[in-house]
Amino acid sequence: MAQGLPGVSAEPDAAGTDAAAGTDTEAGAGTGAYAARVQGLTRRFGDRAVLDGADLTIARGEFVALLGRSGSGKSTLLRALAGLDGGTEGGLDVPATVAVAFQEPRLVPWKRVWANVVLGLDTADPRGAADKALAEVGLAERGGAWPLTLSGGEAQRASLARALVRDPGLLLLDEPFSALDALTRITMHRLVLDLWERHRPGVLLVTHDVDEALLLADRVLVLDGGRIAHESRVGTPRPRHRDHPDLTALRATLLARLGVAPEGTA
Amino acid sequence: MPTPSVSTSSAPASPVPTPSGPASSAPASSAGAEVPRGRARPALATLRSSRAALARWISPLVLLVLWQLASSTGLLSERQLPAPSTVGSTALDLIGDGTLTDAITVSVQRAALGFAVGALAGVGLAVLAGLSRLGENAVDPVMQMLRALPHFGLIPLFILWFGIGESPKVALVALGVAFPLYLNTFAGIRGVDGGLAELARTLRLGRAGLVRHIVLPGALPQALVGLRQSLAAAWLALIVAEQVNADSGLGYMINNAREFLRTDVVVLGLAVYAVLGLLTDAAVRLVERRALTWRKGFPV
Question: Domains in chain B: how many in total?
Fold first, then answer.
């Protein structure tokens, strides 16, 4: 790609996609029964269709995890839902407020943590709103800090606070825990569940971690060949333990779907 | 480049900018990434850094003493290099009769005016080129071509165009200032993290918000590097311009002194140029320290 300023010139594209996607405007996302709906979504890079007529509906307040091998188009689908990809074809219906937490926290380093949380938010009392959101993620003390002085886990918490302060109808999580150490990840799983139960956005969690998907989601999807190739509902009540027999069975199924033979079979 | 004006910078353990809130028991959730904060460190660090600042003054002072000794014992002849004390008393004389202050005023005015024009042009064009492909295509090729011109080589042309008044001097300074600022600001804008630009879209900042909150602050560190280079260029351009033709200012004072074999005035003039350069450099450092506190471990 040429060195244009990323994201600047592409603004009109995103608007165009929204307009083209809003086919059923009267029962749009966030107002109807679903938080987001994708119909026959196709995304080509050159000759290769990474997404090839993918269909996906996320119910309001539903927690969906999306698994797939690397290169399967998980992130492409998430970026399309986030409005970051102007090159898709097909139906895309998302609520007015979509929030994203990326794999890297992407805090703006020259804005203090609290200012990051409310960046772009139109509110009378930004500091108050930021402090409230930071308290929810356990970062009440760090609002005045510079982002580069935060640890990895703290930064990811701030990123979650920034997403949730917007009260999104759809929360997109793009492998937000993959760069964290194992202990921090456990804490973050609990935090995300806690926040989700309190705010109830529709969630799409893109991950390559089958256990993470099973611990958190209502529904686990596997993306393969450019479409949703498999779907498992997880009815196990939360909080879940990874050794629960239901989850063990599901894990084997999902791993097989992902092309990983279960242990001991080789 | 020896910069004895650097004061608090070289403490081995640079104080982390401690946020306003009390961070007594910060959760240590990620290994390694944690930075020690709080408690009695700032006082200790200040003491240590002021001691380091003092240490930096020792070698220039020793040099000055040696120079003075060499002059007073006759090792250095007054015609080649007058003693620091001679230069000092000349300075007092010239301040007394207003010669030095007038010369400084004229030179600083030229530098300031040239800097203002050059900075406006350099930063303005960089923003124009940095923010859009169209702007880049319009501005950048021309700037790259002009950059290849040795701009002191333009002096004869400038004299033909502007005569020998203030304009060619100001123009030469402006030219020296514009290019480093343009190149660095442009590079700074283009070097802004694409991930943050994406973030701005998901936060619906809009184009103006993107420029204001992400692009310009993101380009600032690099632009400040350009600022320091351009200030050095400004003084250099001024010195050259004032050597070539001038009837006032520091350069005129120096050239005039040469005619009368007043080595002490020549040395004084050079010292004043150096001090002016150090002062502006220190000013930029101050701006950097205030504007870039967000950088981890800054000041370096």
Answer: 1
Note whether residue B196 is domain-resident.
Answer: yes
Cβ atoms < 10 Å from Cβ of B90:
19
- Considering the domain boundaries, does residue B230 fall inside one? yes
Residue B237 domain flag: yes
Which residues on A lie below 8 Å from B293 (Cβ)? 146
Alpha-carbon span B80 to B89, nearest angstrom: 17
Report the residue of A8, A85, A191 to disrupt the B interface, i.e. the one with the largest count of B CBs within 10 Å.
A8
Instruction: Give the residue from B267, B117, B132 showing the smallest Cα distance to B190.
Output: B132
Count each helix (H run) and each strand (E run) in chain B, helices first.
11, 0
Rounded to a whole number, what is the distance in Å from the CA of B118 to chain A's nearest CA?
A: 25
Q: What are phi and psi of A153, to 5 degrees?
A: -65, -40
Q: Is residue B70 part of a domain?
A: no
Instruction: Give me the residues paired with residue A89 across strands.
Output: A42
Q: Is A2 on the interface with B (CB under 8 A)?
A: yes
Phi-psi region of A21 (alpha: psi -120 to 50; beta: other; left: phi over 0): alpha
* Residues in chain B closer than 8 A to A121 (CB atoms): 203
Name the helix (H) or strand (E) containing B242.
helix B216-244
CATH code, domain carrying B220: 1.10.3720.10
**Locus of tokens 């050159």:** A46
Whether the ipTM is more than 0.90: the answer is no
Amino acid at B142: V
Nearest-by-Cβ selection for A6 from B21, B28, B198: B198
First to last CA, chain A: 43
Provide φ and ψ at A175, rounded to 5°.
45, 50
* B26 contacts in chain A (CB < 8 Å): 141-142
- The per-residue pLDDT for range B42-71, each reduced to its tens digit, is 667 777 778 888 888 899 999 999 999 999
Query: B223 to each of B3, B36, B186, B204, how far by Cα in Å?
Result: 21, 30, 8, 26
Q: Is the dihedral of CA B95, B98, B103, B104 positive or negative?
A: positive
Q: Does B205 touch chain A (CB under 8 A)?
A: yes
Contacts with A, B 91-150, CB within 8 Å: 130-133
Q: Which residues constitute the domain of residue B280?
A: 85-291
Q: Can you tell me the distance from the alpha carbon of A179 to that of A207, in angstroms, rounded to the nearest whole number?
A: 12
Angstrom distance (rounded) from CA A101 to CA A83: 14
Contact yes or no for B198 and A3 at CB 8 A = no
- Which of A13, A46, A74 has the alpha carbon at shortest distance from A225? A74
| CB-CB neighbors (< 8 A) of A11 in chain B | 201, 206-207
Residues B210, A8: C-beta atoms closer than 8 Å: yes
pLDDT digit string (tens) for A82-123? 999 988 999 999 999 999 999 999 999 999 999 999 999 999
Provide the β-strand partners of residue A231. Answer: A221
Report strand pairing: A202-206 vs A170-174. parallel
pTM of the model: 0.76
